[in-house]
């Protein structure tokens, strides 16, 4: 089996009124699958189940709400431990080992620096490398 990191996107929807904004959350879950296709299927099932489970008694701004599963923004193959120099003898990653990454593009160096400081910028997600 192979490990993947699935970035699952959800939002909160008010049940009894229209809403002016939509809070979006990207959660990363560890998925164990034989291949990418199975990982996507498992991640989608998991995301839908978690959205339903997270809706029980949910309120947003003191109003009844529910969690909506929106999809998988990214599925990353976790690096095999042998590709990192920060691996223990038994193949388990140690502190500081890179296990996955997320690549995107911004328009300027200033935008990249702004992002690193926690500011909002427009970015384009790169497609997964084969």
Topology:
Elements: E1 2-14, E2 24-33, H1 36-53, E3 59-60, E4 63-77, E5 104-105, H2 109-116, E6 124-125
Antiparallel strand pairs: 1-2, 1-4, 3-4, 5-6
Radius of gyration: 18 Å
Mean pLDDT: 82
- Determine the structural class based on helices, strands and strand pairing: alpha+beta
Count of DSSP H/I helices? 2
What is the helix content?
10-25%
Give structural notes:
The chain is α+β, with helices and mostly antiparallel strands. It has a domain of 77 residues. It is built from 2 helices and 6 strands. The strands form 2 sheets. Strands 2-1-4-3 form a 4-stranded antiparallel beta sheet, covered by helices on one side. Strands 5-6 form a two-stranded antiparallel ribbon. The longest helix is centred in the middle third of the chain and has 18 residues. The chain is globular, with a radius of gyration of 18 Å. The chain starts with a strand and ends in a 5-residue tail after the last strand. The mean pLDDT is 82.
Concise account of the structure shown:
The protein has two helices and six strands, in the order E-E-H-E-E-E-H-E.
Which tags fit this structure?
130 residues, alpha+beta, two-stranded antiparallel ribbon, 6 strands, globular
